Amino acid sequence: MKNYNLKFVFFEVLIVVSIVFPKFSFGAPDPMTRDEIICLARSGVGYSYWWCHAKWCRSGCSPDFSSCRAGSCSGSCSGSCLAPTCTHYGSYGADCSGFVAKVWQVPDPSPVSTNYHPYSTQDFYCYSIYWSTIPFSSLEKGDAMVRRDGCPGRRGHVLIYESGDSWGSIRHYEASGCSSGIVHHTHSLTTDFKCIRRDNIVSPCTPSLEVCDGEDNDCDGEIDEGGVCCTPSEEVCDGEDNDCDGEVDEGVVCLIGWNLVSSISSDINGDGMADLCARAARGIVCHLSTGSGFGGVINGPEISNASGWNQPIYFSTIQLVTGDNVCIPEDEVCDGIDNDCDGEVDEICNRNEDESEFVLENSDIAGVEDFTLETEYSERETDFDSKEYDSYESRLENNGGGVIEGGCGCVIR
Predict the structure, then answer these.
(1) How many degrees, rounded to 5, is the angle at CA 248 between CA 247 and CA 254?
(2) Fewer Cβ in 10 A, N or C end of the chain?
(3) What is the reported pTM?
(4) Which residues pair with 276 in a beta bridge?
């Protein structure tokens, strides 16, 4: 018996709380423009009056009667939602408070085809939940006008204002009553109406060039995108677009040292076969090719998940290159490239290190033979006047002149 009484008292407390504090606001509703409000209101015109409901179909800003029939209502609606004094036929329509809540999309976004009736005229008139009272002189399209015979009261009405003199005849949308349904018309209102405005009504976006101002200037749903707030600097490996070109960590800025045969080859061990490398959880792992499959495994740099290398800023930033220098030493040839990796380009004809001879070796230029010219002189000024130099110069002329075909100079400096 005591348990029963406790349950009854708890239930009674819940009823009292729901009457004294009917509904609370938790932040602002989703943003809407005034045109969006009017669009939803227009889409309901022609549907029936359905007590304590709100549901219809639309195609853009127009009603969609091909998908949902308008329905009908008979009688004079009043009373509770469970026992109305009117009769509705069909599955679509709305009463006045359900219509306004659906058009205003409060408390949450809800498709018009979903039956949802969260508020009554008592809520719109007596409380500021997702709306607030405004003066008649501030009325704009998309605002609402509401009346009630008291708080809590018994009867009331609410509608969506579109245009006109708020003190006289106004153009508006409303679920007018059982005989009329949802209509768009003009008439004057009684003086017991007050004006309310939905929270978080925003201005429509007019696209313009995106600039760095914390606003969505181009109306694409993103703010300050496209590097408009970027100050160009040298690109470094940090997951950012440092040079403001729209790319992140591009170029050779996030290289990982590795002993490759070529900077564009995956032949790790130099056997001429393409090996397979990937970053596993523990770091870089390379599987050596056998020509018909994969055999041995070589573990590379430990850029592991535990070290943070699974973070998105490191995606697409790994490139295998050769140790500290991407240059692979080869014989120097006349091709505009530093083939032998000594910091000089096309130096195929020059003195050797002890300046005792001039050397032209490994020449693949047509008409130019390899030769070595020894001399006992070490100072260049003397060499220029020596017979040996004359002979050297003559040898060059005999082999195609002082400038080799292809633009590679073969002269003493």
Answers:
(1) 130
(2) N
(3) 0.51
(4) 287
Owner of token pair 């001429």: 272
> What is the tens place of the pLDDT at every residue in 350-393?
444 444 444 444 444 444 444 444 443 333 334 434 444 444 44
Residue in the structure block whose two tokens are 């008649």: 136
According to DSSP, the β-strands at 255-258 and 357-360 are unpaired
DSSP output for 84-141: EEEEEESS-EE-HHHHHHHHHT-SS---TTS------HHHHHH--SSEEEE-GGG--T
205 by Cβ neighbours in 10 Å (0-12 / 13-18 / 19+) ranks as middle
**255 token code pair:** 């290289």
Q: Closest Cα to residue 340, out of 353, 325, 327, 324?
A: 327
Q: Which residues lie closer than 8 Å to 324 by C-beta, 6 or more apart? A: 257
CB-CB contact of 286 with 297 (8 Å): yes
C-alpha to C-alpha distance for 52 and 99, rounded to whole angstroms: 10
Tokens of 93: 């329509």
Concatenate the DSSP letters of all residues of 300-323 into one string. Answer: -----GGGTTTSGGGTT--EEEET
Lowest mean pLDDT among 57-71, 176-190, 209-223, 356-370: 356-370
pLDDT per residue over 330-349, tens digit each?
Answer: 777 766 677 777 777 766 55
Token reading at 366: 């047509």
Residue 23: HSE in the Cβ half-sphere, 13 Å Cα cutoff: 18
* 201-239 pLDDT per residue, tens: 998 888 889 889 888 888 887 888 877 888 888 877 666
> Is the pLDDT score of 405 beyond 50?
no
Residue ranges of domains in the chain: 26-198, 255-322, 349-409
Q: Please state, in angstroms and rounded to a whole number, the distance separating the CA atoms of residues 368 and 375.
A: 21
N-terminal to C-terminal alpha carbon distance within the chain: 115
Q: Is 223 left (phi over 0), alpha (psi -120 to 50) or beta?
A: beta
Dist CA 280 CA 289 (whole Å): 18
CB distance 347 to 332 below 8 Å: yes
Euclidean distance between CA atoms 245 and 247, whole angstroms: 6
Angle, vertex CA 66, rays to CA 64 and CA 69, nearest 5: 85
Rounded-to-integer distance, Cα 7 and Cα 233, Å: 70
Per CATH, which fold does 26-198 belong to?
A: endopeptidase fold (from Nostoc punctiforme) (3.90.1720)
